[in-house]
Structure formats: structure tokens, C-alpha cells
Amino acid sequence: MDRQTISALAHGDHPIAAPLSDASVARLLERALPRAAGRLLDLGCGSGEWLLRALDGRPGLRADGVDLAAASLESARAAAERDGTGDRLTLHHQDATKFTASHAYDLVLSVGAAHAFGGLLPTLRAARGHLAPGGSVLVGDGFWEREPDRATLDAGFAADEFADLATTVDRVVADGWLPVYGHVSTLEEWDDYEWSWTGTLTRWALDHPDDPGHDDALKAANAHREAWLRGYRGTLGFVTLVLRRAADA
């Protein structure tokens, strides 16, 4: 079973692929989209959950999503048709780092996809290339809540992969951005996300004992749970920022 399929199954009960509650997602979108109109771009949109929630209740908003996972895009397309927003959503099956458009966007969103761009600052540089004057970026990425110990590093992280929260924000500001809102995921949000990820995948495997992917799904769920509980729980944080360009940047 490939990683995209495992991820799609694991996010079945928590479609926002980040440690954020529904209330936090709604609040971030309200701050990032103060008007119910404009254009939105999600770089690395997955199943399009951010796009679907943004389009709901904003009839003047049009959105584009970009991702390499064809199955996830099909899921997003089907959900938009069910919601009645399919005519305002355009999905692009391609590498988000190579996406181009003929128009700029009022909001560029990329949450939990910084790895595709090589880190947070490269993600912001990519977003800036799509941003209309006065527009905003909504970006989410990890940071170290505390110095990573050996258990965290053994879970698959590098010590220099992230910085602490203050340093992370300092780097963003030094790059010409100003935070106009932010949210630090709570331990409760993290636990709900991780229990959902591992639990949903485990349940799928138990419910499909004869599926060829049964063993791979259980192995992935067990490995993820071990890395979380014995590795990065309480060490890896997640911050989501609403940013605008500094006037002189």
C-alpha cells in the first residue's frame, strides 16, 4: 500500500491533515478571508478540505487547489459537487512547486505541506509568487516546543528541521512578512489528530482483514503511534500563521 493511500485512509475521520480542531480551522479562515469574495489558492490541497470549508458560506469566493494525489483530488471534486460549490472550485493535478496561474490570489494557503517546498521560507517564497497586492498567506508548519531529544530524533526528525516558536516567527518576519493572526495547536488538538490518524487506519485494517493492504495499514498505524507516543509528543509543535507582506518588503 503506497503512502498516499495510507494517508487518505488515516485522515478519514480527521480530514484536515494537521493538528487543528474544526473551531481553529474556522477561526483561521475567518481571519484570513475577511471578505466573502476573491480568489483562494491551496498549494498541496490534498482532499481539498480547507478549500471546501472556505467556499462554504462565501458565495463570491473562487478557489484553486493543487496536489499530486489524483485520488485525493477526485475526492475533493466529488465533495464540492455534493456541496454545490463545484462550479467555483478548480483542481490541478500537478506539482505545487511548479504551478502557474494567469491571475493572482487574495489568499494563498499551504498548511502542513512545507516539506514539498523544502521548508517554511521556501513555501512562503512560492506563495508570494501567486499573491495579489495586499493579499494574505495562511501557512502552517512545525516548530520545536522543546529541544528534541534522542527519542524524537529516532522517530525520523533532524534537530535542525525546525526551530523554536520565537525563532520561527523571527525568520518569517525577517523574510518580509508580518503576522496578523496565529494559532499554536494545543496538546488536545495534537492528541485528537494522532489518535484519529492511527485509530482510523487501524480500524480500516481490522474491518478489511482480507484486503491486500491489511498488513501494511496495521504496520503503518503501529509505527506512527510508536513514533508519536515515544518520540515527538510534547516536543513537536505546530503553528498556523496568517501573514501579510511588510509595506517596504
Automatic annotation (TrEMBL):
Alphabetized InterPro entries for the sequence: Methyltransf_12 (IPR013217), SAM-dependent_MTases_sf (IPR029063)
GO molecular function: methyltransferase activity
Key word tRNA processing present: no
Keywords associated with the record: Methyltransferase, Transferase
UniProt xrefs under CDD domains: AdoMet_MTases
Residue span(s) of domain Methyltransferase type: 41-136
GO biological processes: methylation
PANTHER family in the cross-refs: METHYLTRANSFERASE, SAM-DEPENDENT METHYLTRANSFERASE
UniProt name for this protein: Class I SAM-dependent methyltransferase
Organism annotation: Streptomyces himalayensis subsp. aureolus
